[in-house]
Amino acid sequence: MPKAKTRRAAAKRFRITKNGKILRWQTKMRHLLECKAKKKKRSLRKVCAVARADLARVRHMLPGG
Asked: What predicted TM-score, i.e. pTM, was given to this entire model?
């Protein structure tokens, strides 16, 4: 059986922790930043866990995890 390949686009966007949680970056931090509050931008810098509805799809794209 051939080796399972990692989707490279997914590997650049997601990170797997030791406990198996999948983390992602927040959205809305690319442009139009001058109208957003400092507090909002500061909170968007943090990583968060992938939603439960998307977990199976993301795990399929990252077979090494």
From this structure: 0.83
Whether 28 maps to a domain, the answer reads yes
Backbone angles phi, psi at 7, to 5 degrees: -75, 120
Domain residues for the domain of 55 are 8-61
Would the pLDDT of 65 be above 80?
A: no
| Pairing verdict, β 14-16 and 22-25 | antiparallel
| Interacting residues of 55 by C-beta distance below 8 A, sequence separation 6+ | 22
| Residues ≥6 apart with Cβ < 8 Å to 40 | none
Number of domain units in the chain = 1
